[in-house]
Structures are given as C-alpha cells and as structure tokens.
Backbone:
C-alpha cells in the first residue's frame, strides 16, 4: 500500500518499475547483494537491509502519509457474533485489556515479545517506533465518532485503486464498532 501511495505522490505508477515479488528473506538478500535497486518491505526488514547497506535511503514510510492509518484487526464470521455474543464480548474485553497493558508498558512488551520470538529486542524496538498505540478508551472514542470507519474505508479505497479489490464494502457493514464500545 505504501509503495502505491509513494508512487502516486511522485506522479508515478507501478508501470514505471520492474516489480519482482519475493518473500522477505529473498528481498533482503537481493537488496544486500545489489540484485535489485529498491525494495518495498516493512520493519524490521528495513533495518536488516540498513545493517548490510548503511547508506540506503528510505524513500517512504507510514509517517509520510498521516491521512492513512493501517490498523490491525481481529476478525470472526458473522455467525459467531450472532450465536456466541458472550464469547465475542469476552474476547474483545481481553484484547482491550492486553492493548491497554501494551500501551502502558512498551519496553516490557518488547522484551516479552523478543523473548517469545527468540529475536534481539533491539530489532523490535525500532519496529515499535513505526506504529501508533491506542488505549481501549481512545479506540472506543474513535469507534463512536466514525474515525475507525474512515481508516478502514480509506484502506479499502487504496486496495480498489491498486487493483487488489474490485469493490470495497463500507466499513460500517463489517466493523462492529458497537461491540467494541460495549
């Protein structure tokens, strides 16, 4: 998505590039060995590339497009929401509590995650600076005022524009803001 936004901002399109799709490890090694001139990849892989090529130039990042948010989401099928509302409510409550703890304890969250994944915490520290953390209260307010729907609608519009979706559904048709707020 960011590649498409960056190209559009520069008056370019994907047709102006020779794009090769590859898994992250292949992208990192191809860039490090000079087989490709650029890479559209996410953190922490940007930092891995930067270690091998200290002089790289980061052309675009999330912060360059503040009007766009790319939220993570938890999904279930509609039948679960209808047939098992108590389960859905408990799941949302646990996720809110976990998100609030993560928001209040970023350093400890990084350490726990690094230990769990068996990776160097320094890699995750850099990645953590790339995202925005919200409290459950913040997300509830943004759910009530339609902000989250606008984020999701904006993301869907990017997918349509980039040919990933034929047609986008309005976020109000699938984001259960009322359940999150409740």
Residues:
């Amino acid at each position: 998505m960011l590649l498409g936004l960056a190209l559009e901002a520069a008056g370019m399109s994907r047709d102006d590039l020779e794009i090769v799709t590859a898994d992250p490890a292949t992208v990192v090694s191809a860039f490090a060995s000079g087989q490709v001139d650029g890479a559209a990849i996410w953190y922490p892989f940007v930092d891995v590339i930067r270690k091998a090529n200290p002089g790289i130039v980061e052309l675009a990042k999330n912060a360059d497009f503040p009007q766009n948010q790319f939220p993570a989401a938890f999904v279930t099928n509609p039948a679960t929401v209808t047939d098992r509302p108590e389960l859905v409510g408990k799941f949302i409550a646990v996720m809110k509590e976990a998100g609030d703890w993560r928001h209040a304890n970023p350093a400890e969250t990084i350490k726990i995650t690094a230990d769990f994944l068996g990776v160097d915490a320094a890699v995750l520290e850099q990645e953590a600076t790339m995202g925005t953390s919200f409290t459950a209260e913040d997300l509830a307010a943004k759910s009530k005022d339609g902000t989250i729907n606008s984020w999701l609608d904006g993301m869907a519009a990017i997918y349509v524009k980039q040919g990933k979706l034929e047609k986008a559904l309005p976020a109000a048709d699938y984001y259960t803001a009322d359940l999150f707020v409740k």
Notes: Residues 85-104 form the longest helix (20 residues). Residues 2-64 form one domain. The chain has two domains: 2-64, 78-181.
